[in-house]
Amino acid sequence: MQVTIRLFASFRVGRFVEETRDLPPDASVADVVRALEIPAEAIGMIMLDRRHAPLEQRLHDGARLALFPLLGGG
What is the domain-level CATH number for residue 43? Predict the structure, then answer.
């Protein structure tokens, strides 16, 4: 299945802004995060098809996944 992945802020460094990848039919958000070598604790928000999603969420063909890092500030 094909999934479009969009990265934001610091997750783009050394990676990409947007990329479409072929993934196995049972792939989850967590599988993508591991493949991109992003520490799960660094994720601030996961959006799947413009809705919040957990790491365990299974993906589907044509899905649009967006990963946002935790943001700091004060």
Answer: 3.10.20.30
